[in-house]
């Protein structure tokens, strides 16, 4: 069996009953016996419940909340959290003994921002999923829209991407979804190319000088959006890669671009 509990969505008393059980209710430890118990957002578990979990895992026995009779169990525990448990332990919000009891095989799950190459495949997966469940006609995400989606920082990770794909399927009428059809939360990311100071500066310049200021700010913002990837930037802005390199050199921002690429490589 595989049993999943979200520790962040339950009151501490309800969570204990859900894990250990009580009169008339079978708990997760009993349900997951000989299988797997997944404790999602375990950092939200109260210290009291953490203490009971430590004892249960140490003895491989537990009692229901309203009983003294102990029951044995044999399960695999998988625990997840989006918080820094080392910091939580320092602050006294997470028990060290439970941490070291659970932290046998740690697995780091990178954010969607750190694995942007997965976005096209995930978009296709979610599109197929929603088409099958809704009976709607499938749609194709154009390359320019995918590039913008790959440049976005996705603070809501995969759940946010899933919601965006569903939104596009419902809210757009065309079979081909282009960049201008994306929701504002995506297209307005880093969209304010010019700062107020630069805007004021441009008003005092000639057209040639103002155009150079704009090109410098615009192209650097686009290269930054694509994390220093010149090929993707050139494709998005509609320039040949070699022409973009020449333009960046002529604008004198090559050093800034190289530093940006170095930072992207290190991360």
Protein architecture, described:
There is one protein chain. The protein is mainly alpha-helical and 267 residues long. 53% of the residues lie in helices and 9% in strands. The protein has helices at residues 12-20, 28-31, 47-59, 85-90, 96-102, 119-134, 143-151, 157-171, 184-187, 196-203, 207-225, 230-237, 241-251, 254-266, and strands spanning 2-6, 36-40, 61-63, 70-72, 76-79, 140-141, 176-177. A 3-stranded parallel beta sheet has the order 1-2-5. A two-stranded antiparallel ribbon has the order 3-4. It has a two-stranded parallel ribbon with strand order 6-7.
Keywords:
two-stranded antiparallel sheet, 3-stranded parallel beta sheet, single chain
SSE blueprint and pairings:
Layout (H helix, E strand, L loop, with lengths): L1 E5 L5 H9 L7 H4 L4 E5 L6 H13 L1 E3 L6 E3 L3 E4 L5 H6 L5 H7 L16 H16 L5 E2 L1 H9 L5 H15 L4 E2 L6 H4 L8 H8 L3 H19 L4 H8 L3 H11 L2 H13 L1
Parallel strand pairs: 1-2, 2-5, 6-7
Antiparallel strand pairs: 3-4
Helix pairs in contact: 6-8, 10-11, 11-12, 12-13
The helical percent reads 40-55%
In whole angstroms, how far apart are the ends? 39 Å
Please mark out the parts with pLDDT under 50 across 5 or more consecutive residues, or reply none. Answer: none
| Lateral arrangement of strands in the main beta sheet | 1-2-5
Q: H/E element string? A: EHHEHEEEHHHEHHEHHHHHH
Question: How can the largest sheet be summarized?
Answer: 3 strands, parallel
Q: Helical stretch count?
A: 14
What percent strand? 5-15%
Compute the CA-based radius of gyration: 26 Å
Q: Give the number of DSSP strands.
A: 7
């Amino acid at each position: 069996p595989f049993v999943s509990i979200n520790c962040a969505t339950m009151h501490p008393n309800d969570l204990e009953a859900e894990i250990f059980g009580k009169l008339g209710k079978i708990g997760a430890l009993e349900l997951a016996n000989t299988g797997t118990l997944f404790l999602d957002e375990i950092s939200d578990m109260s210290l009291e419940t953490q203490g009971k979990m430590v004892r249960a895992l140490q003895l491989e026995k537990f009692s229901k909340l309203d009983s003294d009779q102990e029951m044995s169990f044999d399960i695999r525990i998988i625990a997840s959290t989006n918080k820094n448990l080392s910091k939580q332990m320092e602050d006294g919000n997470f028990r060290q003994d439970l941490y070291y009891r659970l932290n046998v095989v740690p697995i780091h799950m990178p954010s969607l921002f750190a694995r942007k190459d997965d976005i096209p495949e995930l978009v296709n997966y979610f599109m197929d999923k929603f088409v099958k469940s809704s009976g709607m006609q499938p749609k194709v995400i154009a390359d320019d829209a995918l590039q913008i989606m790959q440049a976005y920082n996705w603070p809501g990770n995969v759940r946010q991407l899933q919601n965006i794909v569903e939104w596009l399927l419902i809210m757009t009428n065309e079979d081909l979804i282009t960049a201008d059809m994306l929701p504002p939360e995506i297209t307005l990311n880093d969209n304010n190319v010019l700062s107020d100071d630069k805007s004021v500066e441009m008003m005092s310049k000639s057209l040639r000088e103002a155009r150079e200021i704009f090109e410098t700010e615009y192209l650097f913002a686009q290269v930054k959006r694509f994390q220093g990837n010149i090929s993707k930037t050139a494709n998005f802005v509609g320039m040949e890669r070699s022409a973009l390199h020449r333009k960046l050199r002529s604008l004198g921002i090559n050093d800034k671009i190289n530093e940006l690429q170095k930072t992207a490589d290190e991360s």
